[in-house]
Amino acid sequence: MTTENIHPEEFGYHFSSGNFDRIYRQTASLFKARMNMDDFAEAAEEFRDGTEKFQLKHQSQLEPGIRRFCWVDAGTERMIVTAFNDAGEIVGVQFDIYEKFKTDRVLTINRYQLPFTGEWFVLWGGANNFVNYHYPHKHQRYAYDFIRKEGGMAHSGDPDDLNAYYAYSSPVTAPAAGKVVRVLEGIADNAPFEMNTDAPEGNAIIIEHANKEYSLLAHLRNRSILVEAGDEVSAGEMIAQCGNSGASDTPHLHFHVMDGIEPHEADAIRIQFASGREPVQGDTVRGRK
């Protein structure tokens, strides 16, 4: 007898009910090759123990053909992230904790605008670890990664060609008035799907703003930076181009605000945006022209 597929929105019910065999049968072949049924059931039962009901908290689509869902048990704050393809197969299941921090209630004193012109896509951003992989790490907890898309795609043509990415070479602008206090440059852009972890920020600019707040703009294109330490910049002024330097495998712009000049020592601050609206993963946003 053929068992009807679980709809993505029903996953939480079936997991909470312990229907692990049924869930596993719906996983993609690559998933099955990496984990057998007995191991999956054992891990799932251990994670479910002590929980009551996993409810759908978030969903998103970051790439064509794959939808992600976040399920949370309110009593234990345990989180399951599932990914389904268009064929209805489960291509990924991740067990985690849905973390929240008191610092979520603290916003920047200054208001910041988006650090680019035109239309961009929020790849990672928001105040939980489903929508923002930076979130568990206090030094970049409220960071954003932005890319550009056209027709749902981040690139045209060959994905191995750096110049095929819409974000690559796009203008990067100052998010608020301030003084440039540090410039990191001379770091080659990576080929797509490669990273330079020896210089994680890559080519980057740190700007000091009023109230001792500092913005970091990272992974900039090599030899594109237009400012140097000591320069005063105004909000919206072009300061560089988006690149793929540092710990970046495809072109994107990393942006966050922190309470000190050292990115690996200062704590990130949740950004108060000039628009009054906080972007989150999956949003399409527009910077000033």
Automatic annotation (TrEMBL):
Residue stretches making up the M23ase beta-sheet core domain: 168-259
Signal peptide bounds:
none
Q: What is a single Pfam family found in this protein's UniProt entry?
A: Peptidase_M23
Instruction: Give the molecular function GO annotations.
Output: metalloendopeptidase activity
For this entry, the protein name equals Peptidase family M23
The protein's organism comes out as Lacicoccus alkaliphilus DSM 16010
